[in-house]
């Protein structure tokens, strides 16, 4: 798959990334609405969800937006995340990546969204509105 075949979509909402103790239950506030991702390891319970749903007492990394790679992507494809993350890294744009069965999601700080879109557009990626 070439870059020109990959389309992305900016999700308009603002998200937060939360790290909780691995022994706590998944909090109800995390799964209320919209996109959310929950990953549990022996070290942590990591949650990405709409920022406005996160209680003010919960420590989180705030102000992320999501660039969704429009899929589904075939499992045989190689280097999709690398082809997206490399130009962003070269332009000083930090990411947080999430992969699902069908596709990839690139979280970028809200302050960097315009620069990320410009960078990826210059690399040949298409953005769908």
Automatic annotation (TrEMBL):
* Location of the CASTOR ACT domain: 60-121
| Gene3D superfamilies tied to this protein | VC0802-like
Identify the domain of life: Bacteria
| Span of domain A9CJY8-like N-terminal | 13-55
**Pfam families assigned to the protein according to its UniProt record, in alphabetical order:** A9CJY8-like_N, ACT_7
Q: Which PANTHER family match?
A: CASTOR ACT DOMAIN-CONTAINING PROTEIN, CHROMOSOME 1, WHOLE GENOME SHOTGUN SEQUENCE
Record's protein name:
ACT domain-containing protein
């Amino acid at each position: 798959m070439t870059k020109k075949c990959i389309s992305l979509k900016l999700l308009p909402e603002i998200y937060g990334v939360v790290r909780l103790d691995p022994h706590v239950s998944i909090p109800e506030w995390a799964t209320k609405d919209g996109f959310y991702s929950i990953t549990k390891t022996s070290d942590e319970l990591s949650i990405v969800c709409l920022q406005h749903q996160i209680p003010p007492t919960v420590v989180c990394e705030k102000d992320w937006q999501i660039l969704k790679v429009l899929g589904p992507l075939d499992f045989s494809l190689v280097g999709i995340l690398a082809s997206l993350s490399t130009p962003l890294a070269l332009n000083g744009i930090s990411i947080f990546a999430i992969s699902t069965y069908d596709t990839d999601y690139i979280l970028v700080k809200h302050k960097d969204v315009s620069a990320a879109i410009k960078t990826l557009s210059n690399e040949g990626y298409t953005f769908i509105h």
